Amino acid sequence: MPPVLEVKNLYKVYGTKPAVNHIDFSIDENCCFGLLGPNGAGKTTTIEIIEGITKPTSGELFYMNHPIGAEFRQQAGIQFQNTALQDFLTVRETLILFHSLYQDTLPIEKLIEMCQLEEFLHQGVKNISGGQRQRLLLAIALANNPKILFLDEPTTGLDPSARRIFWDLINEIKKNKTAIVLTTHYMEEAYYLCDEIAIMDQGKIIAQGTPNSLLADYFDHVIIQIPKADFTLPIDHFNLPVFQQDESVEIHTDNVNMVIETLISNQISLNRLQIRSRTLEDLFIELTGSKLTS
Amino acid sequence: MKKFWAIFYARNIEFWRDKASLGWNFIMPFFLVTTIYFIFSDGQQYQYKVALYHSPTQIKDTQKLSFLSTKYIHFIQVDVLPDAIKKVKHHQYDLLIEIGSSYKYWINSSSPKSYILEKILLSDPPKQLTRQILKGGETNYIDWFIPGILGMNMMFSCLFGVGYTIVRYRKNQFLRRLKATPLTPFTFITAQVVSRLFIVSTVTSIIFFGCKLFINFKVEGSYLLLLLIMLLGAFCMISFGVMMAGRTKSEELAGGILNLVTWPMMLLSEIWFSLDGTPQWIQQLSQIFPLTHIIKAARAVMTEGSDFATISPHLITLTMMSIFFLIIGAYLFKWE
Questions:
Q1: B176 and B264: one domain?
Q2: ipTM (interface predicted TM)
Q3: Which domain holds residue B297?
Q4: pTM to 2 decimals?
Q5: Are B96 and B48 spatial neighbours (Cβ–Cβ below 8 Å)?
Q6: Which of B3, B5, B177 sits opposite A83 (nearest CB)?
Q7: Helical H runs in B215-336?
Q8: Can you list the alpha helix ranges (DSSP code H) found in B41-76?
């Protein structure tokens, strides 16, 4: 089975500054591909080039082994970061409008059910909440039963509950073997939804892989957190990296047993001890945050 | 076709549900027509209009006519005698004088102004003066004004309804979203044009017949011909709006451009007053505006009962303009 999407040596320059700097990646069927990065990293430009909204300076794009063309337009579902809709239409009318622009479509009623639009179906699009709007935009993106779905920061601005509902919808869509390209600022979201992640910074992909493989590649330790009040040892007692935070001390180690044994032997209370694995957020800051602040 | 109807349907719904815009489209022309009707319903016009038809070689003869130095009379040079005779018949001129080797004048026997002007003329008559009498009902200002006000309303509805709307869609990135679908610019523009044509035709027809119910203005010619003028005129204006909105991104800029084109049309397309008697270059300049041709054609049909052949130059001009605007508009159009 060929990749649904292949991006080869993609390059886009605005003036003299490259927004996308010779990147390559491919996305297989049934894969949720996360494109992460700080603001201005080139994520949205990359997605917009693939969607045909922006022209690349150079590079090649393939959909199902063919250069991107009319077939892609028919079979790609797109949810922009900001999409304006026609003010005086209801949710149902808006959905019908976009539904009518495609040849092969999912039934309207199925879209309504999938994206849980029933309760506000007859309201004007101006009068629905942020979460409802995102669900409508997702339904629009799904109208053509897409083989590949682009979601550009779909949960930005949503409350945690609305975000969770949205994640469940994405997981349902993944079951239909739809490839998904997701950009997000929420690392938790990327970890929860994505099968593969590419972290972009300054137009380049600086890390790529599954979330767990990336964490394993970059972090070989866990963090043991102990409240400062409980930690009575000198900071250099361990021959390990130890960091003092506002209210706790963090010990970075790949040998939890050894650290705990040492703590017990020194009569340190373990009642409020926490062991935390490294997260995508740690990785993101490690790869991009340090560069941004340097 | 399904895509076309989807855009067409959505645009129409948007228009009908936008109460402010809908209200403006109906209330403004009714208000203007009613106001002008009451202002001018007493038929008082304090200025006499006398048309002078002569060849440049005979200018010296005019100096012999003392009538031409009479105060409070607006003398208008005319080039086409039959047109001027028609205007006397319709009370648009109070008197017409042909100045050649001899003098000939036309009056409307049913016009009080013609009667008074004739008395003044005959108080010091030149030699060889011939009298011609015409008969014809008066064209009230409201009869003359109705085509203008309907044309103006069509102009605003077409230019702002299409031009401004496309710019708004572009600014709020709705066009960008459509760009990501299989919809082609041609289908989008066609749906916008036909949708607005439908809306403008409906609104204009309602206003026309609504006004006709309350004010018995004159319609001498064919209603079908008026329908043709309305459709062609609206199509031309919509095309102009599409051209203007081809690439404009800012609503403010669009507003500025629209004002820039609508105000000269308001002043020079004979909505409010005739350009008879104005310098020739102004009259020629007015010919570049589609609204001039719409109003002149409609006015000719309504007040003079003109037929298709008579107004065909206006219709041809509107068709040519529409094609030109659409080609340029299609060339310029960008989703973003």
A1: yes
A2: 0.79
A3: 2-39+140-332
A4: 0.76
A5: no
A6: B177
A7: 223-244, 251-268, 280-286, 290-304, 308-332
A8: 59-62
- Evaluate if residue A32 carries a pLDDT over 60: yes
Q: How many domains would you assign to chain A?
A: 2
Is the CB of A100 less than 8 angstroms away from the CB of B13?
A: no
Please state the domain count of chain B: 2
Residue A89 has its nearest CB partner, among B2, B13, B172, at B13
Q: Please calculate the CA angle B323-B326-B332 and round it to the nearest 5 degrees.
A: 140
* Contacts A138 to B, Cβ<8 Å: none
Residues spanned by the domain of A154 = 5-216
Sign of the alpha-carbon dihedral angle for A213, A9, A43, A206? positive
CA A281 and chain centroid, separation: 12
Give strand ranges (E) for B79-156.
95-99, 103-108, 129-134
Query: Does A80 contact B17 at a Cβ distance shorter than 8 Å?
Result: no
Q: Which two tokens stand for residue A85?
A: 């809709």
Answer yes or no: is A284 within a domain: no
Give dist(CA B9, CA B12) in Å, integer.
5
Classify burial at B311, counting beta carbons within 10 Å of its beta carbon; exposed 0-12, middle 13-18, buried 19 or more.
buried
- Chosen domain end from B74, B108, B134: B134
Residues A75 and A192 in one domain: yes
Residues in A closer than 8 angstroms to B180, CB to CB, are: 51-53, 73, 76, 78, 80
pLDDT tens-digit series, residues B209-239: 988 888 878 888 899 999 999 999 999 999 9
Which residues of chain B lie closer than 8 angstroms to A85, CB-CB? 174, 177
Q: Which residues lie across from A182 on neighbouring strands?
A: A34, A151
Angle between helices B308-332 and B223-244 (to 10 degrees): 20
